[in-house]
């Protein structure tokens, strides 16, 4: 049964996905069936993670299917949630902390493992904001990728042998596998973070694949009547398996292969000695065996599971969500612009008519009663609550403002306090405090908080304008709230102008005022139509993202807005031009009307009072509307600020958790440091011999330093390319080389002197480390034991 190197699953601590993801769903989607569906999906995702990571998995296809489904779901869900803003911390342990790499036999090889390690090296590591653990360092995953590639090639060798394929094919496949194992061995020589079993297994596999290639190539030589070559290759194969049996027998079982080679060699020698008498050539003179690679590193393509179904299939990616948010903002701006221009036109019309005392001047020809239009305005003010309703709204605004300011101040204070602590620890630990500075991380939140502060300041200014306007009109508004008899008594009387009743100028003015009323009603209808326009840009944004890989939101939104609101914009402009022309005509007619009226001081006082009452009514309506809008604004802003506060609280909590873990790592690291300074052993106390000239200089031995155990050496053979020299030992005493693949050299099992690490140690903290993206790291789980 073949022995394969497998990588243990990385272990992670438990993470609650439900709370942060549910909070986002609740804030991003309104209550209803859609929100409920996404909340259920969050629960299922949490269960899926627990199934994949929360319990030991059997070495079976069903376990692999769980991991593949989980990875596919992560790939599908990552673009749909703002994970950096959710501040989820995923902690993974070094896979090589404990345990062995050996996982038994593998019956089926999937084209995944080598590509998965290559994916980690090329894609995942770039997403980390801290030094990776040693098991996923670029050098380690590159080596593991080569190991998996070698083992995949060996699987094809086993398959070809079992299917009794032609010896020429098997020889090429095995020779290529030996080449792959040799490359893997070279990459592993100086990586002490890998378990000690790896290096001898790779050396043994290199020799075994070479021996297998020689065995099948010898059969091919026999078929071609090259009996001396057959014996030479079998002798070479025999030496290879003898080396494996003597040095690596505790790691691999080479007995079956050895017996097969010995039987073939015995038979070949017997036939050659008694029948053929063919000369046995030197191994170095043999033709090189060809190579045939049937494996390659394949990229990760999702979905990996054939049964995968996205739990959040209906949820659009974050890029689409953000584009929708910007598009909705543009739509709101367009609606507000059109509606605002309509309302400004109405206010302008009311102001002009109030300044001309219309229509009250046409109704007040008697000079001693309250005009009907004034009575209607008075009743409208009373029905809406009069002064009391306005004063209550004005009284509530400061409380709402103060509540919002307190929420904003508390949110920013949380960031300030955590950043201060982070800076203090950074000063204390210097370069060891190797996490992103809080000041850099909080820049987007502080910018957002600054925007909120600016909005509040502008709101305070708007509140002041409303109060000033109320103060200037409150006396006339109070008069409108009085009974009709008191209102009549407050309006000065004037001489009657009954001679104007039925005159042409009066009729013209009344007709023009009627036309103005029709224009106002048209504006109300147009405003309702503008507000009722609805459209969904989701499909167009999804199509653009699929086709172009990006969304040009501004261009797409502008085109859609022009299509939806183009006709409304034209109608608004026509309405405004019609009112402008008609107001000019009203002012001209009013001049004629004023010239015909009897003018005296009493008439002027009465007309002035009626103008003030009409203006007070219009101001009351506008002030009430402004105050209600202000109240709604503060209440809506409170909800937004509470979400901002939660966002600040979440990231501060995550930073505190990360801070505590890093402090724990630093304390453990400091505890492992030697308590006394290291120093070199004097030369006269050293028993080691002086290295030979030209050899490597040993690293100085230091006190309190534990040297790693020596690795078992691989066999050493003479390359084929080497030429024979006089006095060379007989071929039977010299182990022949492994065809075209020189075997790897392992460190000697018993070095004559202390050896320091032949490569710079990897900088970073072992053990736990936190990552920003669980999709990125979970790919490591798919290296199937």
TrEMBL record:
One Pfam assignment: BRO1
InterPro entries listed in its UniProt record: ALIX_V_dom, BRO1_dom, BRO1_sf
Domain BRO1: 3-353
Top-rank lineage group of the source organism: Eukaryota
SMART domains assigned to the protein according to its UniProt record, in alphabetical order: BRO1
Skewed-composition ranges (Pro residues): 733-750
Region of interest: Disordered: 672-765
Low complexity: compositionally biased ranges: 718-732, 751-765
GO biological process: mitotic cytokinesis
Gene Ontology cellular-component annotations: endosome
Record-given protein name: Programmed cell death 6 interacting protein
């Amino acid at each position: 049964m073949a022995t394969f190197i497998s990588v243990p699953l990385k272990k992670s601590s438990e993470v609650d996905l439900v709370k942060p993801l549910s909070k986002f769903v609740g804030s991003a989607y309104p209550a209803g069936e859609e929100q409920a569906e996404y909340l259920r999906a969050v629960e299922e995702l949490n269960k899926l993670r627990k199934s994949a990571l929360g319990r030991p998995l059997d070495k079976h296809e069903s376990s692999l299917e769980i991991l593949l489904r989980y990875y596919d779901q992560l790939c599908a869900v990552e673009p749909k949630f703002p994970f950096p803003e959710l501040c989820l911390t995923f902690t993974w342990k070094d896979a090589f902390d404990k345990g062995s790499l050996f996982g038994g036999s593998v019956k089926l090889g999937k084209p995944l493992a080598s590509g998965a390690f290559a994916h980690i090296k090329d894609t995942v590591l770039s997403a980390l904001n801290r030094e990776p653990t040693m098991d996923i360092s670029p050098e380690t995953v590159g080596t593991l990728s080569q190991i998996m590639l070698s083992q995949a090639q060996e699987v094809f060798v086993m398959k070809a042998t079992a299917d009794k394929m032609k010896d020429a094919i098997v020889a090429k496949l095995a020779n290529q596998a030996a080449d792959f194992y040799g490359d893997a061995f070279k990459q592993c020589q100086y990586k002490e973070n890998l378990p000690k079993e790896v290096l001898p297994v790779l050396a043994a596999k290199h020799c075994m694949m070479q021996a297998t290639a020689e065995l099948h190539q010898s059969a091919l030589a026999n078929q071609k009547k090259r009996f001396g070559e057959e014996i030479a290759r079998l002798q070479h194969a025999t030496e290879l398996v003898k080396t494996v049996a003597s040095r690596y027998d505790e790691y691999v079982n080479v007995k079956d292969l050895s017996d097969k080679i010995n039987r073939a060699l015995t038979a070949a020698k017997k036939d050659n000695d008694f029948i053929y008498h063919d000369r046995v050539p030197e191994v170095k003179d043999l033709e090189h065996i060809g190579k045939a690679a049937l494996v390659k590193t394949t990229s990760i393509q999702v979905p990996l599971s054939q049964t995968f179904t996205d739990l959040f299939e209906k949820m659009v990616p974050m890029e689409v969500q953000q584009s929708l948010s910007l598009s909705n903002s543009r739509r709101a701006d367009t609606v507000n612009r059109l509606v605002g221009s309509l309302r400004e036109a109405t206010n302008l019309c009311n102001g002009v008519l109030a300044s001309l005392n219309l229509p009250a001047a046409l109704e007040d020809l008697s000079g001693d009663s309250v005009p009907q239009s004034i009575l209607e305005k008075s009743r409208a003010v009373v029905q809406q609550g009069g002064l009391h309703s306005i004063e209550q709204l004005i009284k509530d605004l400061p409380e709402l403002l103060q509540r919002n300011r307190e929420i904003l101040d508390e949110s920013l204070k949380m960031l300030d306090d955590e950043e201060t602590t982070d800076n203090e620890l950074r000063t204390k630990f210097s370069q060891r405090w190797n996490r992103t500075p809080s000041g850099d991380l909080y820049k987007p939140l502080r910018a957002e908080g600054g925007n909120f502060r600016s909005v509040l300041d502008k709101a305070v200014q708007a509140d002041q304008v409303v109060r000033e306007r109320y103060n200037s009109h409150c006396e006339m508004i109070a008069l409108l709230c009085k009974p009709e008899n008191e209102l009549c008594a407050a309006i000065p009387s004037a001489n009657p102008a009954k001679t104007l009743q039925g005159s042409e100028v009066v009729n013209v003015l009344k007709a023009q005022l009627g036309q103005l009323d029709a224009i106002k009603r048209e504006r109300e209808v147009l405003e309702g139509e503008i507000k009722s326009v609805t459209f969904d840009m989701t499909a167009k944004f999804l199509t653009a993202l699929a086709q172009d890989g990006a969304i040009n939101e501004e261009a797409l939104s502008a085109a859609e807005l022009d299509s939806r609101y183009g006709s409304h914009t034209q109608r608004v402009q026509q309405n405004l031009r019609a009112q402008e022309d008609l107001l000019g005509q009203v002012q001209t007619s009013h001049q004629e009307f004023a010239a015909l009226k009897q003018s005296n001081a009493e008439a002027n006082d009465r007309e002035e009072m009626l103008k003030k009452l009409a203006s007070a009514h219009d101001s009351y309506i506008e002030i009430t509307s402004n105050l209600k809008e202000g109240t709604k604004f503060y209440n809506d802003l409170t909800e937004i600020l509470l979400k901002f506060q939660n966002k600040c609280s979440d990231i501060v909590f995550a930073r505190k958790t990360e801070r505590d873990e890093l402090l724990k790592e630093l304390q453990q690291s400091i505890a492992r440091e030697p308590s006394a300074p290291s120093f070199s052993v004097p030369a006269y106390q050293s028993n080691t011999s002086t290295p030979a000239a030209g050899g490597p200089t040993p690293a100085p031995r230091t006190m309190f330093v534990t040297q790693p155990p020596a690795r078992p050496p691989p066999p050493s053979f003479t390359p084929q390319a080497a030429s024979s020299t006089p006095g060379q030992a007989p071929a039977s005493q010299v182990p022949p080389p492994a065809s075209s693949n020189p075997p790897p050299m392992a460190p000697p099992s018993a070095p004559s002197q202390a050896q320091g690490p032949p490569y710079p140690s990897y900088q970073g903290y072992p053990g736990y480390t936190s990552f920003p993206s669980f999709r990125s790291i979970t790919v490591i789980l798919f290296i199937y034991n």
